[in-house]
Amino acid sequence: MAGAGGGGCPAGGNDLQWCFSQVKGAIDEDVAEADIISTVEFNYSGDLLATGDKGGRVVIFQREQENKSHPHSRGEYNVYSTFQSHEPEFDYLKSLEIEEKINKIRWLPQQNAAHFLLSTNDKTIKLWKISERDKRAEGYNLKDEDGRLRDPFRITALRVPILKPMDLMVEASPRRIFANAHTYHINSISVNSDHETYLSADDLRINLWHLEITDRSFNIVDIKPANMEELTEVITAAEFHPHQCNVFVYSSSKGTIRLCDMRSSALCDRHSKFFEEPEDPSSRSFFSEIISSISDVKFSHSGRYMMTRDYLSVKVWDLNMENRPVETHQVHEYLRSKLCSLYENDCIFDKFECCWNGPDSAIMTGSYNNFFRMFDRNTRRDVTLEASRENSKPRASLKPRRVCPGGKRKKDEISVDSLDFNKKILHTAWHPTDNIIAVAATNNLYIFQDKVN
Amino acid sequence: MLSKGLKRKREEEEEQQEEEALAVDTWWLDSDHPAVAPAPPAVASSSLFDLSVLKLHHSLRQSEPDLRHLVLVVNTLRRIQASMVPTAVLPPVPSLPAAPGMADNLLASSDAALSASMASLLEDLSHIEGLSQAPQPLAEEGPQGRPIGGPPPSLGSLDLLDPATGCLLDDGLEGLFEDIDTSMYDSDLWAPASEGLKPGPEGGPGEDAPELKETELDYLMDVLVGTQALERPPGPGR
Questions:
Q1: A433 strand-pairing partners
Q2: A11, A203, A352, B10: which has the fewest Cβ within 10 Å?
């Protein structure tokens, strides 16, 4: 099994020295729930980094151009645009409140000067256009500089308005609103490689949309049983293949992944491929199903592999092999003996995401205590790092962390019982080409870069 | 300043935190949690069962429950249930008609401590559901935890609804598993058998009788869906 190749970017998480670069967000211990980051996503070039939060806001950071006179900037990310994407709503038919929390953001490939992204809450997807304005017109005939209309009878001469530079203004405007197509909570959106369509998935259904058409969508997967008593499984994530516009996958709460081909039938209830690893009988417990529930699925950039995240591990699957993954990486195996406690406090239901680096040679996912893990697929080495304010001196190297599963704790190790389970790293993102990572720790966004960068 | 402040569901989260506070404290202090199920467990402790029922209730009390959470808790509860029933009580091929027989057998066995914990559990929940049932006893330790291939056995009167009204919990609940088609958003709303209407206290004791024959969890699901079904004439089977 070969990695996806070098491509000029050093591979993996371990040959590199990760350093703190920036942290965004309030330092205040008292975290407002609305400020909790709920999604993080780089755009296709990596120049823009978007975050969504529980308050329905989107904040976009832009990477500064490297400046020879300010070498320390080294491509820092600064706020580019902030806007309120979703507001809390009330569904009058069902007497339900609809949360404004942004579940996912996905960028569209850039086609002109403006940037487009899709953002979604539980029920509604919106297409936002983010555009720059750095000029304004002056010298109108019918209105004066204040915007007041001039009396036409007083106009004695005509002039051509001229464009004058102004301070850069970044505007975000909603261009499309895709609503009323999901009865259940949307967990995923994925833009197709055709750049014209995208899918949205909720607990029981997946819909296919055209980006231009908001009043209708095609239902392509429906796992709702005729009799809801028979419901035993829900859809947890879905994604389009990065190159084959007819192929997508979706994962389930039972730890299975189905790959579907839209060419085979209009309704893709029947999968083309079914990925499931047989359960290890020796580790079977009452919580087996819960910990097998897949919280995220991501295709590799190459399109040859996909990665799934369940509660304790990350698995890499070869699309040509359905009966087992080609790699399994343990994220925090020391939690296996604590599953009952984690069930009690609901941590066992936490949904961690995972991501690939540009060359697909390394993968990253989050854990508790503000730890996150990186796995180098080539060297088979892994590292645990921490996103914390204590390690936030500029360009300070991150020290690898170790968790002591039990027994004698060595120096610099942290014991399992000391882990803070309220500090969860659920959302991480890796720059598409460079070794820059964004890690969301509750209401703070950490950006780390490697020393070479 | 765009901060939105606290969420609406915070008081529900606080309630759950109160209920589970003791468990969380125990967890922090004691790595050998008494309720930790060893792998592979033959039989679940009753506290794990109670915890699961509590979670199920809490999940159902949400105005719009997290379906994934609900399904996972229900499936886990089924596994726990399956392991708790003593094999002597099980019929060789479990099937729905046999369920009433199993329920009777389970009711016959008793466990004082379990009854007490069930009583307190039910008491906690009674203000939500208007329960009037006696706490149901469970066989605590079965000889083996043989998983059942068919539907899980009934636990007796694990009634989660008021048999008088047939209504389960809060207002939005009968819409729990209900599908509102996008056609609901079209101009022709309010079809005659409106899915949005909350059924009144239509379910008299007589109507519930056929449903009592089914397994308890299926019963639970049944009623959630069945609040809609109550508008239709009760059929002989489902």
A1: none
A2: B10
